[in-house]
């Protein structure tokens, strides 16, 4: 049936059948439980840990470069000290000698400062190496957890993949038969609903989604299938439970026939005697 030839009842029936298919897909996905979220959280945590370790490794390399720089400064200072000490033996006056002495003292201070910095940098490197070691052990543990969770999730997906694909195909085909205005509203309601229900039936005179009572006159309007009616409390589309035809009720079992007693006959015989 073309979309433009659909009656309101046809549209409601199509939406209700679409909901039935989508609810089955939701049920399949619920089997996975929190696994997809747990896998995502673990992947994000691992990515964060790897970034943190890279940063620590970069900081360690930077400290090693600083150690090299300080060692070079120390070696240059030693060369200068030798040079100034040699010059002291050829000075002309005390002024030149004192000036060279100050330069030698300054270079010695540079060596002492470099030695001090090198010790500090080495201590920082050891500290960072310890942190990196602990982080790596923790990272390896989280990677193992991720592998286990992914294996569990893949197994569940594999078990339900065929059925889910079939239902998804049915859902897409059903949507194609409904005008976009209604499917957009349907998707919006589903997205805002915790249980994914956008189309619900009346159950015990109440909305099958939020369970708020529906007035009798509104129930009659819903049963006529003349217009799309939504719950004034939750916004879900309301349909009659018999939208797809009368609900078959199980036949009541016949009460077992009681065996006729022979009480009357027995009484009659007693009277005859």
Please characterize this protein's 3D structure:
The chain has about 270 residues and is mostly helical. It folds into 2 domains: about 1-30 and about 180-245, Orthogonal Bundle (Helix Hairpins); about 30-160, Helix Hairpins (Orthogonal Bundle). It is about 70% helix and about 5% strand. It is built from 6 helices and 4 strands; from the N terminus they run ααααββαββα. Strands 2-1-4-3 form a 4-stranded mixed beta sheet. β3 (about 230) and β4 (about 235-240) form a beta hairpin. α2 (about 35-90) packs antiparallel against α3. The radius of gyration is 43 Å and the shape is rod-shaped. It starts with 7 loop residues before the first helix and ends with a helix.
Layout of secondary structure:
Elements: H1 8-31, H2 35-88, H3 94-176, H4 180-191, E1 199-203, E2 206-207, H5 216-224, E3 229-230, E4 237-239, H6 263-272
Parallel strand pairs: 1-4
Antiparallel strand pairs: 1-2, 3-4
Helix pairs in contact: 1-3, 2-3
Concise synopsis of the structure shown:
With 273 residues, this protein is mainly alpha-helical. 70% of the residues lie in helices and 4% in strands. The chain has 2 domains: 1-31 and 179-245, Helix Hairpins (Orthogonal Bundle); 32-161, Helix Hairpins.
Q: Which features characterize this protein?
A:
273 residues; mainly alpha; Helix Hairpins; 2 domains; four-stranded mixed β-sheet; 6 helices; rod-shaped; disordered C terminus
Task: Please name the CATH architecture of the largest domain.
Answer: Orthogonal Bundle
Classify the helix fraction into a percent range. Answer: over 70%
Give the integer mean of the pLDDT values. Answer: 86
Oligomer: single chain
Give the helix/strand class: mainly alpha
**Beta fraction:** under 5%
Helix and strand succession? HHHHEEHEEH
- Enumerate the strands of the largest sheet in spatial order, edge to edge or round the barrel: 2-1-4-3
Helix tally equals 6
Largest sheet: 4 strands, mixed
Low-confidence stretches: 252-273
CATH class group of the largest domain:
Mainly Alpha
């Amino acid at each position: 049936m073309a979309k433009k030839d659909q009656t309101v009842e046809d549209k409601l029936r199509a939406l209700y059948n679409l909901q039935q298919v989508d609810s089955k897909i939701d049920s399949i996905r619920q089997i996975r439980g929190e696994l997809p979220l747990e896998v995502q959280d673990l992947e994000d945590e691992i990515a964060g840990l790897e970034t943190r370790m890279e940063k620590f490794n970069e900081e360690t390399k930077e400290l090693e470069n600083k150690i090299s720089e300080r060692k070079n400064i120390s070696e240059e200072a030693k060369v200068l000290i030798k040079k100034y000490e040699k010059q002291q033996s050829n000075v002309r006056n005390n002024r030149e000698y004192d000036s060279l002495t100050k330069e030698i003292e300054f270079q010695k201070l540079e060596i002492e400062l470099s030695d001090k910095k090198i010790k500090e940098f080495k201590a920082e490197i050891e500290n960072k190496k310890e942190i990196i070691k602990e982080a790596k052990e923790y990272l390896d543990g989280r990677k193992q957890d991720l592998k286990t969770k992914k294996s569990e999730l893949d197994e569940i997906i594999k078990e339900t993949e065929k059925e889910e694909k079939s239902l998804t195909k049915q859902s897409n085909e059903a949507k194609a038969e409904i005008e976009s205005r209604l499917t957009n509203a349907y998707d919006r309601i589903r997205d805002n609903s915790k249980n994914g229900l956008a189309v619900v039936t009346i159950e015990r005179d109440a909305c099958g989604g939020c369970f708020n009572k529906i007035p009798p006159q509104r129930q009659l309007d819903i049963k006529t299938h003349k217009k799309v009616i939504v719950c004034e409390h939750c916004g879900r589309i309301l349909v009659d439970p018999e939208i797809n035809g009368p609900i078959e009720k199980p036949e009541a079992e016949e009460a077992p026939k009681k065996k006729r007693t022979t009480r009357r006959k027995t009484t009659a015989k007693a009277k005859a005697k």
